[in-house]
Write the structure tokens for this entry.
Amino acid sequence: MYRMGSTDCGAHHRVDRAYTYSGIGVVIERHRDEVVVRRVLRGSPATGKLHPGMHLVAVDGENPPSLEAWAASIRGAPGTTVDLDVQTPCGRTKTVSITRDIVRMSY
């Protein structure tokens, strides 16, 4: 995504907005009492391993008490691994190991 800026002369230029962080590249949200994968960022470490609609059950064997705690638990130093217990929309439960990396998120 981008925002268009203009000068007094009427010329437009593109202003990209992005930030980087170390993690796996997912957007999560709370849905009732569950934490759900809302989006997987293209090209991130989670690509092909997590999918929208999956419920997060545990992170490294723990069940964080808030959405913010979930996000903090998923993030970590590049090269470290996080183990996520997930439940697919069809009810299957599995553990997914993902190696964290630098993720660039544009908005």
